Amino acid sequence: MAYLKWSSELDTGIDVIDGQHRRIVDYVNQLHDARERNDKDAIADVIESTVEYTLSHFGFEESLMEDAGYALSKPHKRVHELFVKRVADLQMRFRAGEDISGELHGLLSRWLVNHIRNDDHDYVESVKRNMQRLTRETHEGGWLSRSIGRFFGSHR
Prior knowledge:
This protein has 5 helices and no strands. By secondary structure, it is an all-alpha fold. The chain has a single domain, classed as Hemerythrin-like (Four Helix Bundle (Hemerythrin (Met), subunit A), Up-down Bundle), CATH 1.20.120.
């Protein structure tokens, strides 16, 4: 399987999420490179880094959805949990000496693109609305600004 290339159709329009998704794509491509070199230590490192980073990304994404009141946040979280279980199973097989790098690379490549295009794009509007609301509240006169002024004094 070839390199995974980022395309604009994967952009959600939420910069922090897009940056995290691009980082995961980088990990997928690092796995590709390690496989090409047949470097088992590099493969192990990439698997570990990918799993760790993806878990933190999922947690961040889930908190954004929950904060935004996204109606499908629980099913979306369940999709994440099922994916984590599949990757953990592959990780265990790898630690037991099985070469799962090709299977993992294929899974990551297909799953990531499909998940971003479908599941992630579904929550974008809810999260963006919530982010805009929070931005308004932090500007002068908004609830957050008034609260900060009450507790910490005027910042003028």
